[in-house]
Amino acid sequence: MAGGGVEAVGELGVRVWGRVWGRGVYLLGEPLPLMGHIAFGVIDRGTNVLQVRPTTLCPLSCVFCSVDAGPRSRWRRSEYLVEPGWLASWVEAAAREKGVAVEALIDGVGDPFTYPWLPRLVRLLKETGVVSSVAAETHGETLTVELVRRLEEAGLDRVNLSIETLDPEKARRLAATPWYDVERVRRVAEFIARETSIDLHVTPVWLPGVNDEDVVEIVEWAYRIGAGKRWPPVTVQKYIAHRRGRRPPGVREPGWDEFWRWLRELERRTGRRLTWSMEEWGMRRAPRVRQRLRRGERVKVQVVAPGWLRGEWLVRVLGVDRVATLVSAPWARPGMLVPARVTGDKDEIYIVKPA
Ligand code: SF4
């Protein structure tokens, strides 16, 4: 029931795993539902790609991090890890309900390569028979040749590598991490592209005025090393200032028009393609998993653990196979039953408030 000074409801699939950076780390497993939350489990956005989120942990503290991850987080209250077998079974169930073969995109509000069971998760996903490809996102800090070999054996199809500069000093500053070694990341990325069957897709975030020339260098590098064996080699990401994300001082968020103009200019300057259609990604619209709850609906929830952000609780919705985030309930405690109303339901990511 309790451990490490923080409570969780063990019989509902939440166990205390430990503590890191002053926060509780919880292991989530059967019978806790794995849909309904932004920070873990499975997210269906109505295409043939399912987002699969096994961990919230990240060792870096990037100054532009949209999800405020890592040791220097100001908003996080807890971190989560999900049991790999339970997660794979939820991906399989979601894909079967959608009625299509899916790409499992392992991403999240942390770095999936910190997940201790990543090769096992990849293997289990492939074994479901309804997952046509598996991709995983990372900033590369925990990438090693040995891990890449194990992931190749497990059947990983693609690594999406986010890297904002190849300059070691600047990379350390942007990651706000003195030991971040971008040269090592670069060497392992080149190994992936040249020596394995895993595809490499490079995804730098453009921070206007900070890494304009670095992005040019990264585009050239990605093409040169052979990124993009089966999927596009590079996609530049737009920096978006999120309410609870980190904002680098002096960097403004570009508008979409400005972003597309800048990308087209970059394509002209480098002679490299940087924009891709959904088809080139193998992505298409697909039936959604049936939405279980609607905004405005009254529900009863049970608190199972502290939320991932301050002021939030992780709750199970009674009678519905979903979890949700309970807000505006500073008095709540694990185990408590709370009558609530659904206030957010987009993509089946549920926010509830006490009714
Ligand atoms: S941007 Fe990615 S690698 Fe950087 S702190 Fe956030 S989650 Fe971690």
Give a brief rundown of this model:
The chain has 355 residues and is of the alpha/beta class.
SSE pattern, N- to C-terminal:
EEEEEEEHEHEHEHHEEHEHEEEEE
Q: Please state the overall shape, judged from the principal axes of the Cα atoms.
A: globular
- Proportion of strand residues: 25-35%
Sequence stretches where pLDDT stays below 50 over 5 or more residues: 1-6
Structural class by secondary-structure content:
alpha/beta
Number of helices: 7
- Adjacency order of strands in the biggest sheet: 5-6-8-9-10-11
- The Cα radius of gyration reads 20 Å
Major sheet description = 6 strands, mixed
Would you report the number of β strands? 18
Q: State the end-to-end CA separation.
A: 27 Å
Helix proportion of residues, in percent? 10-25%
